[in-house]
Specification:
disordered C terminus; five-stranded mixed β-sheet; elongated; alpha+beta; single chain; Heat Shock Protein 90
Length: 428
Amino acid sequence: MAEKKSLLWFIILRLILFTSLLLSAVTIQFSTETLLINPLYVLIFAAYLLSILYLLLYFWGKRPDLQAYLQISFDLILITVLVYLAGGLRGSFYFLYIFEIIAASIVISRRVAYITAAASSICFGILVDGMYLGFIPYYGSDQPPELSFAFVINHILIAWGVFFLVAYLINYLTGSLQKTREQLRAANRELEIKERLAVAGEFSAQLAHEIRNPLAAISGSVQVLRDELVLSGEQKGLMDIVVDESDRISQSIEQFLNLASPGKQTFSWINLSALMHETLVLLQSSGVLNGRTELMGNYASARIDYYGNRSQFKQIFWNLLKNGLKAMPEGGSLTVDFTKNEKEQTTLNFSDTGSGMKAEERDRLFEPFYSGFSSGRGIGMAVVRRIVDDYMGQIEVDSSPGSGTSITIILPPSSGSADEKIDIEGQP
């Protein structure tokens, strides 16, 4: 698919090229007092007319891809005519085919560059062979030059080799540039997310400290009143709602604080399977995990230990499990696998059979305050990202609409000592 901006540069460069040819022709004519062939000026004039037509088509802007193909096709014809007027092998204009090959790679695609190289080889080969065999007369010469068959074949093969070599080299260059451009785009995206995390962190810290203490006072007072007063069933139910909602807000504040600044963490060896079991118990007791979801994977049997902070890993498990369950409101299967490779890297994989995500949702998954769920606050996955970054880990997301979501966390080798690991050997 042709990029419109590249197409405009293509038009401008061909104008510069043909202008250079015109200036060269005029300079030669006046410096040597040699009358150059009139068809050369006609050809350059035709190139200018085509350029004007290309500019009109460009600003019309309906089919830039079709326009790019037309430009390359007509330019190949113009170049072939120019090579013919210059005397075929006696001239040196067949190097202009190289510019079309380069333009095809940059403006359209790498595959079209090879097609253009093949078309250039065919045009040049037919022209030179025709002139050598006499099917095409030499322009302005009654007596064709004496050229050996070996000389003709040698120059044709060299030209073909150069055309395809240029196609290969420019494709390699454009491929490298495209890969670099994608990496820069990804890096800019990562930087943007980190900047938003920093802004969200500052805001979260201020907001949390403003709410935390009054909320704790409200929740504590309501609990005292509930225990000391004689309340009806409805009144007690209202008190319970106040306490439960206070706890829920308190959890949100904790997430805000973790997003803002995890602070100093206590590290120890963690049995990930045991911690996963604790998290599942909490999800069941809170009513989030229901019987409609089938839990699968090796999380219960795998013995994977990691040196880190229990609270942080519990937050990772909690948020990833909740997201997977939210994606399957009608039920499904949630697969959790823990593995460790030969490089001592620990991999945590959470896969669900839910609704999946579009490309835009996938790209914004870790943005603070962005959520793909109507009831979400956009904090959980940002916290997960913050924790994984703190461990110098990586997160890979594989998701598409209707195909579920797979989130893989790759953590570097644990840095804890073997002596500390003995403490958890007896844990289940």
